[in-house]
Amino acid sequence: MKKIYIILFFIGQFVFAQNKVEKDTTKSQELENVFITANRTATKRKETPVAISKITAKTINEAKATAVYEIINKTPGVLMVNLGNEQHMMSIRQPMTTNAYYLYLEDGLPIRPMGIFNHNALLEINQYNLQSIEVVKGPVSSLYGPEAVGGTINLISIKPPVDPEFKFGVQADNYGYRRFQAAGGATVGKVGFHIAGISSLQENGWMTYSDYNKDNLNARIDYNISPSTRLISNTMYGKYYSDMSGSVNEEAFYNRTYKSTSNFTYRKSDALRTRLTLEHDWNSNSNSYITAYLRDNKLGQNPSYGIKWSPTVNPTTAKGEVNSNNFKSYGAIAQHVQKFNLLNMKLVAGALYDYSPVTYWSYVIDLKANLNPGEAGKQTVDSYEIIAEHPDSKLADYTADIYNYAQYAQFSFSPIEKLVITTGARYDNMKVNYNNALDKSTGSKVYDKTTYKTGINFNPFEFAGIYANYSQGFAPPGITSIFRTKPGTGGTTGVPADFYYNLEPATFDNVEFGGWFSLLENKLNFDYAFYYMEGKNELLNIKLPDNSTDYRSAGETRHKGVEFGASYRPSQQLNIRLGGTYAQHTYIDFKLSDKPSDPVQDLNGKEMPAAPKWSGNSEVSYYPDWLPNLRTSLEWQLVGSYYQDQINTVKYDGYNIFNARVGYQWKGIEIYGNVMNLTDKLYAYNVSRANTTNAQPTYTAAAPRTFVFGIQYNFSLKK
After folding, report:
1. Cα distance between residue 268 and residue 289, in whole Å
2. 104: which strand partners?
3. Rounded alpha-carbon distances, angstroms, from residue 196 to 90, 127, 237
4. 234 close to 295: Cβ distance less than 8 angstroms
5. Sequence-distant (≥ 6) Cβ neighbours of residue 574 within 8 angstroms
6. In 3D, which of 11, 19, 17, 13 has the Cα closest to residue 517?
7. DSSP 46
8. CA-to-CA separations, 23 to 26, 172, 573, 632, in angstroms, rounded
């Protein structure tokens, strides 16, 4: 351990960023990187007035991740929280949350339509089909629309190779996880294709009742009609089923008793996404595309988070739920890019139409709570059993047709050398025609908003630049929240159902300033961003004593911080990367209760829960000259302390963990091993509790030390 801390102290003498230097070249500096996500068209970093990072193919390949969070957490300012079996939530300029403040894209197209956000959307991703990942931090609603508030993650898939390529491999760990994966492609004449598939299986893991299986297949076909015209087909199908072990109580966590309290909770998903894109280059300064797409998603759950149990009212009984959320999407998006010789002007303009019919239902199940011995009022549950199901006792039952329409434009120009000004706007209109079977109501709700952004880039030197921007974010409440009965109403309560019809859209105003530089012949690269964002009507969840959730639109919140990252490559053998963020997330105006008898009336001035001030990810990678094709790395993940509850009474200390990776390639065969949680640290990904004095915390326990092994064969006919 002493040696590890000495190494980390050495890392701490630098301030370094995210994966910006490839092993075989020094020209991949951040200033020359080309990004697609921030401007919807290929743009150099020094002309992009936002905080953006790229995770390269090299980084993805070397991580050999079992889940996407292991890759995405390498981005400064990003904390993707593992909830087990590839389930997750996110923290980018927001606390760790499941709210709809993040936009997940697949080759620039949202994985979900507006209004049907799912914080677990990335569990559908095929890690074996990723070419790169771009992460934009802060609002980009002016280009991508609602939900692009805290951050936008664009997963860019592998394009068909020119020469035939094929790879396959197996991966396993010491806790019953194994994955089979294969991919291949080629270009024959005018047609190129790439196919990638994975099949994952978890059995008898370190946590009881935590099995899962996942199968994904991605296929892309490019037809080069002519040198200037292309037709691209992209299809994904995924099937997922997972036990939901849920969280554990405090005593079980510290005793490392990784025992699920239920053996009946689950999550299952069937997802199909397909698109057809026609691209055309009119000339060297003008190009257009139009994409038609279809989504078909089926999600069913008996969620562990849906179990409601009160230790003071009737501790031997509890309630659960079974739900189903299915939707289809039919849509199209068209975009045109026009460049002008005058002042290096560029215009990006487009429009989107999306029709998504959705059905949702949820019903109550009765549970028996088998208690652990303990003092009355402070007891904990050993296990739950299903007593009865009540399909006719609904917590939600609605159908809705969602119509999304948007149009956007962004304009950039350079009035003087080394200065680029960018401005843009987008209008979004979401109309929901609904039929709520529980209160027998029908109607329409419309959420619309025009969002703006403007920014400047100034690059006084070839090796350095600065930027500033103002941007707006917009997020209507998800329809799952609107049409869910409020706690204490509907179901078997005997109280008429009441709903969240009055939830308001959340709006955000963000101001940021940042910059970057590259020194020592591109061996040292550094970037940073300072941001200040205020949110109004932010949708927040209040955890009640029985673990049920109440939704509120907070009056105002504040989010501010600094993100930093850098990389230093003193030689071809050594690469050092450091990245992190310091942030504060605060309630400015949030009324918690209208009851005079409640001890806490508002949360004004309090820190938001699950909001660590410090978080970061750093890594030292070593590629020895004395043994070519060997790679080793040591990674450090930091998550600082944070409040477990909204009234700021108890903190969780956070954690520091280390991961080690090693791999060796001989000809086309690659053998590798990862050790996750190298020091076997006891820690939790998330800890939360209700806003009451005697509330008991729940811990989403993290895995003990895990050994991952794999072998992969790569075949290529490159000339």
Report:
1. 35
2. 153
3. 26, 9, 11
4. no
5. 620, 621, 622, 623
6. 17
7. G
8. 8, 27, 8, 13
**Residues 440, 397 contacting (CB under 8 angstroms):** no
Q: What angle do CA 195, 716, 197 make, to 5 degrees?
A: 20
Give dist(CA 345, CA 651) in Å, integer: 51
What are the backbone angles phi and psi of residue 186, rounded to the nearest 5°? -170, 170
CA pseudo-torsion sign 25, 31, 33, 34 = negative
The structure tokens listed for 449 are 């908003």
Q: Convert the pLDDT of each residue in 421-462 to its tens digit.
A: 999 999 999 999 999 999 999 999 999 999 999 999 999 998
Q: What pLDDT sits at residue 561?
A: 97
pLDDT in tens, 278-313: 999 999 999 999 999 999 999 999 999 899 988 877
Among 71, 88, 173, 83, which residue's Cα sits nearest to residue 128?
Answer: 71
**Predicted local confidence at residue 22, as pLDDT:** 36
DSSP secondary structure code for residue 227 in this structure:
T
Separation CA 234–CA 220 (nearest Å):
4
Tokens 């949030």 appear where?
A: 590
Supply the pLDDT for residue 30: 44
String of b and e for 381-392 (b: at least 16 CB within 10 Å)? beebeeeeebee
pLDDT score of 15: 30
What are the residues whose beta carbons fall under 8 Å from the beta carbon of 295, sequence distance 6 or more?
112, 113, 271, 272, 273, 327, 328, 329, 356
**Alpha-carbon dihedral of residues 643, 683, 84, 91, nearest 10 degrees?**
40
Residue 670 has which token pair? Answer: 């690659």
CB 719 within 8 A of CB 688: no
| CB-based contacts of 256, cutoff 8 Å, min separation 6 | 682, 704
Which CATH superfamily groups domain 2-716?
TonB-dependent receptor, beta-barrel domain (2.40.170.20)
- Report how far residue 137's alpha carbon sits from residue 152's, in angstroms, rounded to the nearest whole number: 7
Rounded Cα distance, 279 and 108, in Å: 14
Q: Provide the sign of the torsion angle of the four alpha carbons 535, 536, 538, 543, taken in this order.
A: positive
Token output for 100 = 């709809």
List all residues 6 or more positions away from 83 whose beta carbon is below 8 Å from its beta carbon: 89, 120, 685, 686, 700
Cα angle for residues 450, 453, 458 (degrees, 5° grid)? 170
Q: Is 128 left (phi over 0), alpha (psi -120 to 50) or beta?
A: alpha
pLDDT value at residue 376: 61
Q: Rounded to an integer, what distance in angstroms lies between the CA atom of residue 68 and that of residue 72?
A: 6
Token pair of 157, please?
Answer: 């898939």
Q: What are the backbone dihedrals phi and psi of residue 207, each rounded to the nearest 5 degrees, phi first?
A: -105, 135
pTM above 0.90, yes or no: yes
pLDDT at 297: 97
Collect the ranges in the chain with pLDDT lower than 50.
Answer: 1-31
Q: How far apart are CA 427 and CA 539, in angstroms?
A: 21
Lookup: tokens for 301: 């759950």
Strand partners, 524: 519, 568
Torsion of CA 396, 695, 98, 80, to 10 degrees: -150
Query: Are residues 655 and 699 in contact, defined by beta-carbon separation less than 8 angstroms?
Result: no
The pLDDT value recorded for residue 20 is: 36
Strand 102-106 and strand 151-157: pairing? parallel
